[in-house]
Specification:
Blueprint lengths: L7 H15 L5 E5 L12 E4 L2 E6 L2 E6 L2 H4 L6 E2 L2 E2 L3 H18 L6 E5 L4 H7 L13 E6 L7 E3 L19 E2 L2 E3 H8 L2 E4 L2 H6 L3 H4 L3 H6 L4 E3 L28 H13 L9 E5 L8 H11 L5 E5 L4 H13 L4 E4 L4 H10 L2 E4 L9 H7 L3 E5 L2 H6 L13 E3 L4 H15 L2 H11 L6 H13 L1
Parallel strand pairs: 1-4, 7-8, 8-12, 12-13, 14-15, 14-17, 15-16, 17-18, 18-19
Antiparallel strand pairs: 2-3, 3-4, 5-6, 9-11, 10-11
Length: 454
């Protein structure tokens, strides 16, 4: 962000480098010149025939240009699915990145790669560029943002990588008679990181390893989990121009006005005494929509309101629309990706739903804390590292956490949330406390700097 985005990695790549620069790391970014990148708006200038340069705050960012590969509507695919030449596209990008660094004399101490699209960089460094003095001493880090996306291709496409056929083997890129770029990156990178300490543990297990748990366990001592942060300038209720009324932990009354505005937008009755739950995310099984669908008939009997915003699979859209039709005073469905509405939901909701079956890090809980919106979460991944179960007696904890992934556990979490919401003084104190949390990138950047320096 703000150049191109399909998921959470864009937010990381748009925020972490700035925090690293502020922590005295000399850092630059390299990415494809996708069609959606507005060259004029961002004042991009050519530095070589096929590379343009811009700025992300105080960080240099280089764009690899190739109209054949990157001048397309989608980044990785379109409405029909993934592009059939993705192996060719990202092989080109990885190789061209290394060529450009030499051409521009930008000698890196560390190349920090992200997900399968850049997995080949570590392999190229230790094969094609192994004897290149320019890269002598250069180390690689691979960050896995979502292990479910691995860059798997047919074995017959291996020649598109430009690698020696010996690397199409079980100890390199071969994966069940196919090619797996993420696996190759894990094998060849010096360090592997993922986006939370808990998820770094989980991906070693079959349940969360997506078939790569054996490879990850083999690299055991070189796998680390560093919690993501959020852009605290973008997500700041005190300065947010997308919401109805700006507010802060010291001036919390504005949150009530945001709730009223959101209720009116949803066609709900503007009641302060009813808890409003928000959901922003993909409408998919991974995000817990299956689980919620089981619980919604009983949840709808409670005195609550819920707004869902997102896009996703048609079966979930149809299911949620059916609930909205049946309970129009309690359930609102907004089937769209809308950044403004997302801000309004974070600001106007009392509680935020994150019932994901797995969540490598999760940014929604950090954002909801920032807006004084109490998360309701399943105990997985980064949610374990950031959301502690509320204990009313000790006045500790900050969210409603369920540890069994079933309907009864969800219903119990909802009921607990409704009961605590009715205790106004306690709930208001909770809001004031969570709004003071610091999930800025500064802490995460310092952890990355330690790894870069090791």
């Amino acid at each position: 962000m703000p150049f191109a985005k399909t998921g959470g990695m864009a937010d990381v790549a748009g925020s972490l480098p700035i925090a690293l620069k502020n922590d005295n790391v000399d850092i630059s970014i390299v990415m494809p010149l996708y069609q959606c990148v507005d060259q004029k708006a961002f004042s991009l200038k050519p530095v070589t025939k096929n590379v343009l340069k811009g700025k992300l705050d105080n960080v240099d960012i280089y764009f690899i240009k190739n109209d054949k590969y990157f001048s397309r509507v989608g980044l990785y695919g379109d409405s029909k699915g993934d592009y059939s030449d993705n192996l060719e596209r990202f092989s080109f990008f990885c190789k061209k990145t290394l060529d450009f660094l030499k051409e521009a004399n930008l000698k890196p101490d560390v190349l920090h790669c992200n997900d399968w699209q850049t997995g080949l960089i570590s392999i190229y460094l230790k094969s094609i560029f192994a004897r290149d003095e320019f890269f002598a001493g250069t180390k690689t880090i691979l960050t896995i943002h979502n292990l479910a996306y691995q860059g798997v291709f047919k074995s017959k496409e291996f020649s598109n990588t430009g690698l020696d056929v010996s690397l199409n083997s079980s100890d390199a890129l071969e994966f069940y008679n196919q090619i797996n770029l993420l696996k190759g990156g894990i094998v060849f990178s010096d360090i592997i990181t993922t986006v939370s300490p808990q998820h770094a543990k989980e991906i070693r297990e079959k349940e969360f390893g997506c078939g790569l748990e054996g490879v990850i366990n083999h690299r055991g001592d070189h796998v680390y989990g560093i919690l993501n942060g959020i852009d605290v300038d973008t997500w700041n209720p005190e300065k947010d121009e997308m919401i109805a009324k700006q507010y802060s932990a010291h001036r919390p009354l504005g949150k009530k006005e945001n709730k009223k505005a959101l209720q009116e937008l949803c066609g709900f009755e503007a009641r302060e005494d009813v808890p409003l739950f928000g959901f922003v995310g993909r409408l998919s099984a991974q995000k817990g929509i299956d689980l919620l669908s089981q619980a919604l008939p009983e949840i709808s009997k409670m005195d609550i309101q819920i707004i869902f915003q997102g896009v996703g699979e048609q079966k979930y859209i149809d299911m949620l629309n059916a609930f909205q039709k049946k309970y129009p005073k309690k359930i609102s469905i907004q089937i769209k990706f809308d950044e403004v509405l997302a801000h309004q939901i974070y600001a106007g909701s009392d509680l935020f739903l994150i019932p994901s079956v797995y969540e490598p890090c999760g940014l929604s809980q950090m954002i909801s804390f920032r807006y004084g919106t109490v998360p309701v979460v399943y105990t997985t991944g980064g949610l374990v590292d950031t959301v502690m179960p509320i204990c009313e007696k000790s006045k500790k904890g900050d969210g409603f956490v369920f540890s069994s992934y079933d309907k009864d556990a969800v219903l119990k979490a909802f009921q607990s949330a409704v009961e605590m919401y009715a205790k106004k003084n306690i709930f208001d104190d909770l809001i004031s406390r969570i709004m003071k949390y610091d999930f800025s990138w500064a802490t995460s950047a310092h952890e990355y700097k330690k790894i870069y320096s090791a």
